[in-house]
Design goal:
Elements: H1 7-14, E1 20-23, H2 33-40, E2 48-55, E3 59-66, H3 73-80, E4 85-87, H4 90-97, E5 115-118, E6 127-130, E7 136-140, H5 142-149, E8 152-154
Parallel strand pairs: 3-5, 5-8
Antiparallel strand pairs: 1-7, 2-3, 2-4, 6-7
């Protein structure tokens, strides 16, 4: 069976960035990164979830943090040049990014929003991010993700 490539995967192809696609069974009752990690046999700290946030000064931004992590809003605000940052309402995510909950990727959103990546990514040779659809993860090196989305790295989990 041929895996259908997402826009996020095509962006990596165009940049000549090596990645692997890992598919998993979707559970609509549990779209968490913890479920993704369990379904793919990966360490939850290697499965990075993408959170869509809004800064009071800079507007929409994305935060990529480990699956078991909790976003530190103050740290993200400081790193992103905002006084405060909050999550966008779930109902706004699709309109802003083109992605649904459980399939939000830092790559290939409707606009190129600034991406902030937790520095813990460097503890792993490979990390996973959503491919842009539920049921598919892209595995790549942290450096390649940083290059692909021009990410700013810092400590943004509690």
């Amino acid at each position: 069976m041929k895996v259908k490539k997402t826009n996020a995967a095509r962006i990596l192809d165009n940049m000549k960035i090596h990645y692997e696609i890992k598919e998993y069974e979707v559970d609509l009752e549990d779209l968490s990164a913890v479920h993704v990690a369990a379904s793919t046999g990966m360490d939850v700290r290697m499965v990075f979830k993408t959170l869509v946030c809004r800064g009071d000064k800079t507007g929409i931004l994305m935060a990529c943090i480990p699956g078991d992590g909790e976003l530190d809003f103050k740290a993200l605000a400081k790193l992103s040049g905002n006084k405060s940052v909050e999550m966008v309402a779930l109902k706004e995510v699709l309109g802003l990014t083109g992605y649904v909950r459980g399939g939000c990727s830092p790559l290939g959103a409707k606009k190129n929003y600034p991406v902030f990546l937790d520095e813990s990514c460097n503890q792993h040779p490979i990390i996973a991010i959503s491919a842009g659809i539920r049921g598919q993860q892209l595995l790549l090196t942290p450096d390649d993700l940083i290059r692909a989305v021009n990410a700013t790295m810092g400590k943004i989990v509690r």
